[in-house]
């Protein structure tokens, strides 16, 4: 009996005691009344693939991608690919990792078609057929969140018919009635939310229901995505209907609302109509200043209702740190986008295998059509590479999100001890903020605020997500596109104090010069002769301390590509 009690106690402890979230004035709190600042990330690309996440060169809706796959490998093999993708993309290890990195919540972008049939496929018009696939996937994800004491936010990302003219977001087929053009689609969405609420009404680790992701539709305005709508009557009407349906079965959970125009146009939508509601906003490619969020801060105060940054990301580490710092200074929870994709500016990167690259080239009319087997093998490898153990982990992104909003401190990217090691890779400059760990003249995309073209940061788009431009050739990664005044800092250990020699592996189209400095007053200029292939510069004398050492490398002249810093006795 005693063993049974112990087992039950451990099980309860693992799951976590009931801590339903609810609103309390302008705050989100748990059942103890403690303020909860949600630090979350969205599982974009999991249930719903957007074309840019897969680097496709055609229209980015998931159904279009699926059609292209079916044309190469057939329907049966395509179904196998999707089953593998859904099983691999998000697993318990992903959620365990998020917890270990410091996140406390997860936003699940749901595709309605994993939970119910499209209206045109319903055997009986007006009836709802429920599919267990989506519910079972959600159950598993919720269990992993419970075990990590993390909140799961259910986000209706792809609604029946699709909620906007930005087609990729909701996998919308414009040849069929949208959510706003079909009463049957609206009824299906209301019924689906009630079904979800019935299933999860007693689940404490369900953080909230995010009713409709990024509506973007012209009801009476001129802009097709609804950014100039003044009333938004159909949007509010539908969200009120969904609220009533949820509240019939679930009085506990927070409801999250989003405005038109990708979530931010609340004209005619407010005030909130439920006493346990959160106002969400989305933030991309603008400045991280108080002025940029003041309108939502005003909503919070005026309506005495919490606000939440429900989706943001797709930028540089500098932008990430600044945005999260701004949110946390204002007690605004946040949720990043996405956890993983085929790209470098997120915590996890899904690799592009050679076979899949050939598919992309074929679809872009740059290569011959692959055989059915080649295409099948490439897609199955892509699904296999979606597993976290096969992803590329970008620790600099996680550091920018979780550590840097709290400190100006730097730390080494990779431990190096000058004794066992004789070189430092140039791309492994310190983790830290712009102007403290490194400096680069281009460091983020702010085109929404500037009104100008989109700007880049790491022009090589690989390895790290700072402004430093990193490239890869047959010999490995290197720092390129350097400019005068840009610099890098390196922290490392030395086994003993004494004199060493330092040199660089570089290539350059003209004579260059770099300045080496440390905090002990040492400085030395190294001249680098023109060399079009990788070459070792002239060595200079340097004195190292036993243990901790830190060097700053500044470009004084020219634009050298830098691969390695060589240090030896």
UniProtKB/TrEMBL annotation:
Database matches in SUPFAM superfamilies: (Trans)glycosidases, Galactose-binding domain-like
Q: Where is the Carbohydrate binding module family domain?
A: 465-563
Q: Does the UniProt entry include the keyword Hydrolase?
A: yes
Q: Name the source's superkingdom.
A: Bacteria
Extract the InterPro entries matched here: CBM35, Galactose-bd-like_sf, GH, Glyco_hydro_5, Glycosyl_hydrolase_5
Segments traversing the membrane: none
Q: Which residues form the Glycoside hydrolase family domain?
A: 81-340
* Keywords of the record: Carbohydrate metabolism, Cellulose degradation, Glycosidase, Hydrolase, Polysaccharide degradation
Q: Give the family, as the similarity comment puts it.
A: Belongs to the glycosyl hydrolase 5 (cellulase A) family.
- PANTHER family reported for this sequence: ENDOGLUCANASE, PUTATIVE (AFU_ORTHOLOGUE AFUA_5G01830)-RELATED, GLUCAN ENDO-1,6-BETA-GLUCOSIDASE B
Its name, as the record gives it, is Cellulase family glycosylhydrolase
- Report the source organism: Galbibacter pacificus
Classification lineage: Bacteria, Pseudomonadati, Bacteroidota, Flavobacteriia, Flavobacteriales
């Amino acid at each position: 009996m005693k063993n049974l009690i112990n087992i039950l106690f451990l099980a309860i402890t693992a799951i976590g005691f009931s801590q339903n979230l609810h609103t309390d004035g302008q705050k989100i709190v748990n059942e103890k009344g403690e303020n909860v600042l949600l630090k979350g990330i969205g599982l974009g690309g999991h249930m719903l693939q957007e074309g840019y996440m897969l680097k496709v060169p055609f229209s980015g809706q998931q159904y279009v991608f699926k059609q292209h796959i079916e044309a190469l490998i057939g329907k049966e093999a395509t179904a196998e690919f999707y089953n593998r993708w859904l099983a691999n993309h998000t697993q318990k290890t992903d959620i365990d990792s998020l917890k270990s990195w410091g996140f406390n919540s997860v936003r699940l972008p749901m595709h309605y078609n994993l939970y119910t049939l499209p209206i045109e496929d319903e055997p009986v018009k007006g009836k709802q057929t429920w599919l267990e696939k989506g519910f079972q996937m959600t159950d598993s994800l919720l269990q992993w969140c419970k075990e990590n004491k993390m909140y799961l936010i259910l986000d209706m990302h792809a609604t029946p018919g699709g909620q906007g003219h930005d087609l990729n977001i909701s996998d919308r087929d414009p040849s069929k009635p949208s959510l706003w053009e079909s009463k049957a689609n609206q009824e299906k969405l209301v019924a689906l939310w009630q079904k979800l609420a019935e299933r999860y009404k007693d689940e404490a680790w369900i953080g909230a229901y995010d009713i409709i992701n990024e509506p973007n539709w012209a009801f009476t305005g001129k802009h097709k995505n609804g950014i100039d709508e003044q009333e938004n009557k159909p949007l509010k009407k539908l969200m009120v209907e969904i609220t009533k349906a949820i509240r019939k079965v679930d009085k506990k959970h927070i409801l999250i609302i989003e405005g038109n125009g990708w979530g931010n146009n609340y004209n005619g939508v407010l005030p909130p109509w439920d006493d346990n509601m959160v106002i969400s906003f989305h933030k991309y490619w603008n400045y991280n200043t108080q002025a940029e969020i003041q309108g939502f801060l005003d909503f919070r105060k005026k309506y005495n209702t919490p606000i939440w940054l429900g989706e943001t990301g797709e930028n540089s580490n500098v932008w990430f740190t600044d945005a999260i710092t701004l949110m946390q200074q204002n007690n605004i929870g946040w949720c990043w986008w996405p956890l993983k994709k085929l790209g470098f500016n997120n915590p996890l990167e899904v690799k592009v295998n050679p076979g899949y690259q050939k598919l992309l080239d074929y679809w872009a009319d740059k290569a011959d059509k692959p055989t059915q087997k080649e295409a099948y093998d490439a897609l199955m490898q892509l699904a296999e590479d979606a597993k976290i153990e096969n992803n590329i982990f970008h620790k600099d992104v996680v550091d920018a999100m979780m550590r840097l909003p709290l400190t100006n401190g730097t730390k080494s990217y990779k431990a190096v001890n000058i004794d066992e090691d004789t070189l430092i890779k140039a791309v492994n400059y310190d983790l830290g903020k712009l102007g403290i760990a490194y400096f680069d003249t281009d460091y983020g995309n702010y085109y929404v605020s500037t009104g100008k073209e989109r700007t880049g940061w790491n022009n090589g788009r690989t390895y790290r997500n700072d402004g430093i431009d990193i490239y890869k050739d047959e010999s490995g990664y290197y720092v390129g596109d350097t400019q005068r005044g840009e610099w890098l800092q390196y922290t490392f250990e030395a086994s003993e104090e004494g004199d060493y020699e330092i040199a660089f592996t570089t290539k350059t189209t003209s004579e260059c010069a770099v300045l080496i400095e440390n905090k002990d007053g040492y400085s030395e200029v190294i001249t680098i002769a023109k060399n079009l292939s990788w070459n070792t510069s002239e060595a200079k004398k340097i004195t190292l301390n036993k243990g901790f050492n830190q060097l700053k490398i500044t470009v004084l002249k020219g634009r050298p590509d830098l691969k390695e810093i060589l240090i030896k006795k």
